[in-house]
């Protein structure tokens, strides 16, 4: 059921800022965290392969383990959760369950499903770079959606690319199938985010084509 006090999408986008100082005592109810993750998982993905996985770290001892991996950024400890966004390097393996599920629900014919599965498996087999590109690209869709969902629920986030990927993989036993693309801290701010200027659209938008 819709609530009348919900922010509009425009307000959520305007309100979201990268917060680096969190209240370590703030707790996010399980149902709120699950809803944020559910909404994040509604992001679009190539072939609907849903290339993202969310490694959610709330245990204080594990967050402390993340501190040196994240180059001493205290936010990974103080935020209620640090969520590692993983990209699936073997997302082609999801094709069959995705499309056979669609067939079972009557959403497509077996012939169409077989054609799509063949296209996906062929694309991954013929282009080794595709797996990494698709993992990063599609996981990024879910990461942005997660941050907007969190803001809509009244929580703060910060995307982090400054961490030691190899050390993270070893510390959290991340399988080779998954590529850590981002850390996102999630919690309640204890201090406002730093203000940030944005380029005017005249500096960002190219109409139709570049001119020589």
Automatic annotation (TrEMBL):
One Gene Ontology term of the molecular function aspect: oxidoreductase activity
Signal peptide location: none
InterPro entries given in the database record: Nitroreductase, Nitroreductase-like
Pfam families, per the entry: Nitroreductase
Key words, A-Z: Oxidoreductase
Every Nitroreductase domain range: 13-188
Protein family (similarity comment): Belongs to the nitroreductase family.
UniProt xrefs under PANTHER family: NAD(P)H NITROREDUCTASE YDGI-RELATED (PTHR43673), NAD(P)H NITROREDUCTASE YODC-RELATED (PTHR43673:SF3)
Entry protein name: NAD(P)H nitroreductase
Taxonomic placement: Bacteria, Bacillati, Bacillota, Bacilli, Bacillales
């Amino acid at each position: 059921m819709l609530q009348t006090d919900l922010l509009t999408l425009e307000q959520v986008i305007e309100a979201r800022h990268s917060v680096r100082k969190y209240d370590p005592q703030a707790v996010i109810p399980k149902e709120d965290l699950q809803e944020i993750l559910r909404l994040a998982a509604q992001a679009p993905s190539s072939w609907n392969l849903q290339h993202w996985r969310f490694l959610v770290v709330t245990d204080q001892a594990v967050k402390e383990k993340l501190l040196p991996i994240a180059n001493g950024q205290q936010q990974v400890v103080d935020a209620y959760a640090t969520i590692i966004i993983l990209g699936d390097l073997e997302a082609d393996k999801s094709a069959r369950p995705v499309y056979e599920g669609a067939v079972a629900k009557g959403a497509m014919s077996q012939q169409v499903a077989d054609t799509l599965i063949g296209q996906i498996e062929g694309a991954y087999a013929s282009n080794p770079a595709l797996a990494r590109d698709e993992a990063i690209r599609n996981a990024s869709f879910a990461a942005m959606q997660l941050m907007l969902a969190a803001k809509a629920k009244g929580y703060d986030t910060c995307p982090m690319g400054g961490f030691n990927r190899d050390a993270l993989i070893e510390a959290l036993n991340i399988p080779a199938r998954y590529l850590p693309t981002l850390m996102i801290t999630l919690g309640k701010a204890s201090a406002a985010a730093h203000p940030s200027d944005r380029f005017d659209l005249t500096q960002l938008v190219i109409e139709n084509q570049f001119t020589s």
